[in-house]
């Protein structure tokens, strides 16, 4: 087995999601830093296979990347952003072949000494899958939970649910979660030591992110908006922030769920950057005067790049499994930002204070993560 390690996390599971890809990249880099040769397991459930409609018939494709390539090339629906996502993954993430069943995952992992799960919301009960609780493999394989998320008070489950996942977690040698709230819930049901560790994206230095970010040719100053929910209702607020930052342009990118691009582009102050892949997304935050977001990773990269930022509540017509403000509040506490950042109305803008990044300590997060990874090393 040598020092091979498998990583079970989300990686391009059918959505345009910058945070998903970048946390996967960071997790792989972190595992490699501690002496393992990582392999990210490309997995989604069998029923999540996608169908490509073309030439008058439905054709099932077993490879999501191939499907997206066909959509972009064969079907003439060219989407530069999709291709940039694929390019970033192929150049920066070591992937297994595509798996759809637990048996296929187990086969891919049989030569791995350590099985990691995390980070991201892989433990969210609303999208439960026991593969992400590492419910497969041999007893000799070490199991490590590194910053999985998804167990929160607002989606508390039945006693039976926690009893079920308790059986899985008892097989783990090291258990860490991303939020304090999750740790508190687990401690009621699980005897093992539950540690809290930062999202892996926070454990890479700014320089490391610059190494995989793009070079922009944007001359004018701007604020950057990244919303997973609707942000047209915040249009007036965003313009107020723009003026307070003394800029005249608001660049934005969206996941494509809500088609607000055409309407906002008609406004002279807004400009869509929806061709941005992960590398371009990093650059848009890096070079912005300020960032407005309802996204967890939008917040994290604002902190990494030491930006003034504003957090908005997720505006969706349905219950979104990731729209939990406790996640943002938890990460802000951990990095030492205690000032008001949440924006709900114009009055909230008056409460926003300047962030002094000299008082923000990311080094302590790395030291906490290092202790956890050293525990993994000592037992392998």
UniProtKB/TrEMBL annotation:
A Pfam family: PS_pyruv_trans
Source domain of life is Bacteria
Q: What is the name attached to this protein's record?
A: Polysaccharide pyruvyl transferase domain-containing protein
> InterPro entries given for it?
Polysacch_pyruvyl_Trfase
Residue stretches making up the Polysaccharide pyruvyl transferase domain: 17-314
């Amino acid at each position: 087995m040598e020092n091979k390690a498998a990583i079970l996390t989300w990686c391009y599971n059918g959505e345009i999601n910058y945070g998903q890809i970048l946390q996967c990249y960071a997790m792989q880099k972190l595992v490699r830093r501690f002496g393992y040769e990582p392999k990210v397991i490309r997995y989604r459930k069998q029923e999540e296979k996608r169908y490509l409609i073309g030439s008058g018939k439905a054709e099932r494709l077993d490879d999501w990347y191939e499907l997206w390539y066909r959509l972009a090339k064969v079907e003439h629906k060219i989407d530069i952003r999709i291709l940039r996502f694929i390019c970033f993954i192929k150049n920066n993430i070591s992937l297994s072949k595509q798996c759809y069943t637990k048996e296929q995952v187990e086969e891919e992992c049989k030569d791995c000494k350590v099985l990691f799960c995390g980070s991201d919301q892989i433990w969210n009960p609303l999208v439960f899958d026991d593969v992400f609780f590492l419910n497969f493999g041999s007893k000799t394989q070490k199991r490590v939970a590194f910053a999985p998320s998804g167990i929160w008070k607002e989606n508390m489950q039945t006693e039976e649910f926690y009893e079920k996942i308790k059986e899985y977690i008892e097989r783990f040698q090291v258990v860490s979660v991303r939020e304090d709230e999750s740790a508190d819930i687990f401690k009621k049901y699980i005897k093992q030591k539950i540690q809290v560790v930062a999202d892996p994206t926070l454990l890479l230095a700014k320089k490391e992110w610059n190494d995989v970010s793009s070079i922009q040719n944007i001359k004018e100053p701007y604020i950057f908006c990244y919303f997973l929910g609707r942000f047209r209702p915040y249009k007036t607020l965003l313009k107020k922030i723009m003026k307070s930052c003394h800029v005249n342009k608001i660049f934005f990118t969206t996941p494509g769920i809500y088609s607000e691009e055409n309407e906002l582009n008609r406004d002279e102050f807004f400009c869509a950057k929806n061709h941005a892949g992960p590398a371009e997304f990093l650059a848009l935050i890096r070079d912005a005067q300020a960032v407005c977001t309802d996204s967890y990773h939008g917040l994290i990269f604002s902190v990494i790049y030491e930006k003034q930022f504003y957090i908005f509540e997720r505006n969706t017509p349905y219950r979104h499994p990731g729209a939990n403000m406790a996640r943002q509040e938890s990460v802000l506490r951990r990095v030492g930002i205690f000032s008001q950042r949440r924006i709900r109305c114009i009055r909230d803008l008056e409460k926003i204070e300047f962030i002094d990044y000299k008082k923000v300590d990311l080094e302590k997060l790395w030291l906490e993560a290092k202790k956890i990874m050293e525990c993994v090393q000592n037992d392998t």
